Amino acid sequence: MEIKRKARIDTKTLEDLEFPSVLRQVSENCVTEPGREKVLSIIPFHDFDEIEPELQRVKEFTASFEGDNQIPNHGFDPIFRELRLLDIENSTLEISGFRKILSISETTRILLKFFKKFEEFYIHLNSFSEEVSYTPIISEEINKRVDKYGEIKDDASTELGTIRRRLNVVKGKINSSFTKALSQYIQNDYLDEIRESVVENRRVLAVKAMHRKKVRGAVLGSSKTGSIVYIEPQETLEYANELSNLLYEEDEEIKRILKALTEFVRPHTELLSSYQEYLIAMDVLYAKAKYALKINGVLPILTFHANSGQAEKRISLQKAFHPLLLVSNNKRKEKTFPQSIELVPDKRIIVISGPNAGGKSITLKTVGLLQVMLQSGLLISAEPQSEMCFFKRILTDIGDNQSIENHLSTYSYRLKKMNHFLKKCDKKTLFLIDEFGTGSDPELGGALAETFLEVFYEREAFGIITTHYTNLKLLANELPHVINANMQFDNKSLEPLYHLHLGEAGSSYTFEVAQKNGIPYSLINRAKKKIEGGKVRFDKTIANLQKERSNLRKTSESLKNEEQKARVEGKQLEEVNAKVQDKLESYQELFDANQKLISLGKKVDALSEKYFNNKQKKQLIDELMKLVMIENSKRKKLAPKVKKAVKVKEQKIIKEVEQKVEVIRERKKVEKEIAKKLPPPKPKVTLKIGDRVRMIDGRAIGTIDTIEKNKAIVNYGMFTTNVNMEELEKV
What we know:
Strand content: 5-15%
Distance between the termini: 30 Å
CATH topology of the largest domain: Rossmann fold
Radius of gyration: 46 Å
Number of strands: 19
CATH architecture of the largest domain: 3-Layer(aba) Sandwich
CATH superfamily of the largest domain: P-loop containing nucleotide triphosphate hydrolases
Shape: flat
Helix content: 40-55%
Number of domains: 5
Structural class: alpha/beta
Number of helices: 21
């Protein structure tokens, strides 16, 4: 199970990024010493096709802590000593060694069986486990010879069974003869109050010193005061020699059995070694998974995949935390500020500037450390939608690099590092440089740093640098695929906000910070006069731009809020307007109907008054009929043929509907009969955020990230999707 690796990320880089400290925290979760040692020796994978399966295994192990099907215990006692003995010809293992071998064999068997049983849940862990070639014959053979208490069984061999039966007979005779002698000498009052004891694993009589010559037997010792003499009675002596011989024969037979068992196990040395390596790997995965829970580690979206040939170079970290800082602050119950940063082909180098103590170095280290962790098979502390790629080399120049051993100054050492960068840097490299160009004359050192940056840029390398040099900020503005960035500061209090802002260089706030720390203004003013006015104006311009940017951001947020508020109010007004319009239309229809009725009423009233005056009934009836005919002419009347066609069509539709209803009734009847025979449906489980789910009748398993109304966003590791809650079932 050992995975061969070759690191291209040197030890100094790992130390600069504090990767060993992360490994120490991970190792604290191991349950075995070999697992702990294995974690501390972790180095990044050389090829990216090894990384993704390891990350998937860690993710599955992490999910098992909260699921119903928790992975069984993987603890074991190491068998390194036993494996070394098995390599030595004619060596024999002790019973304790066989118990360790049995434990490792059985633990391996349980884990392999478990992953096979739940292979749908633990796809990658099962695939990893299937590489182990397991055989039950080792456990079976040891169980035939050794019992659960670590003793050789009576039926381990025919000869041993015979010896132990004879031993039981002799021990019985010794006990009965001793009891007889004990009873006799008690009556004679030759024994002390304690009556008997055990010397050299033999039962002896505690005889009073004055009566020692009256008791027949072998003297095996006396008390410190000499008042008691320990005598083995003559009656048991004749059986003692026989007992010693049988014990010797038993010991020799046990040695023969252990020798034979050792020879049986010896050919399986490599297999036992593979069991142990497998369990060590399980302990490493367990420790990584536990650490992932501690730092809220996730598997980001990988822009590289096993056997994919080419991989897109892209880092997009969303709300990423420095894991060591996160753990430390969590212990102190302090807030940790996350950072979001992006390195893509068209913005592959970031130049971060701004005053010290603003978080530039931590941001740079966060990117480097998370990259190294990912390439070592560790989940990272960031949002799941973050994206990561693979770099064959990671080059760093961080911290105080003065080399006392080599008698090098800081600047000489940094020049040696830059020379190393120039030899190794290419498009498959991520470089991280803190305080780029410092250690020499600002003008000359800045010019040299500018040249280095141009070379890194030409080689299409990805990288992040922090600097105070103005010329590097200007160069970042000029090069198409380089971007300036700054750590945000409060303009009034000059307190750091620990937020990275891309697209704009940062002011060093040199004189502002000095004034805040109590340096007299007169001295600051004198200092300003000693340097070029252009630099002061440039730094002041940057500071003013940042201030304007901050004000614009606040104004933009305010306008967005107002726009959103106006949009909501506009929508509400539209709804009110629609309701009013509906009411107006209803009132208009009602008004028209009432006007029609009033007009008709007036006409009837006029006819009534006319009839009242002339009493001509026939004229009244004629005019009433005329009025009715006029009103009826206004109503729509279908032609006879059309009326008949409509009636036929209605009858046809009714007939078709009746036929369809009959078919539906028959189908429902059949479905009810089938439903009666089916087992009762599973009770519906209320799903919540964090539940592991899958589509009904599906195989892929994901985790619910968010729930909105009746839909859930399910994270499948490599992608997320929006699914109706009714289509999901809890795993």
